[in-house]
Amino acid sequence: MGHSELSRTFMTHITEFKKDVSQSAPQQIVALIMSMKFLRINSSQIEDFENGLKFLDDLASLLLELKDKDVKHAIMGLLVEILLPVAAQIKRETNIPALISLVQKLYVTTNDMTSKKHHKLAAFPLVTCLLCVSQKHFFLANWVQFLNVCLSHLKNKDTQVARVALESLYRLLWVYMIRNNADGNAATRSRLDSICGSLFPKGNRYIVPRDAPLNIFVKIIHFISQQKLDYAFKEIIFDLLCVNNRTQRSLYAERMNVGIRALMVIADGLQQKDDPPAMPKSMGPSASGTVQKTKRKQYITRPLTNEISK
Question: Which Pfam families does the UniProt record give (predicted)?
Answer without folding.
Answer: MOR2-PAG1_N (PF14222)
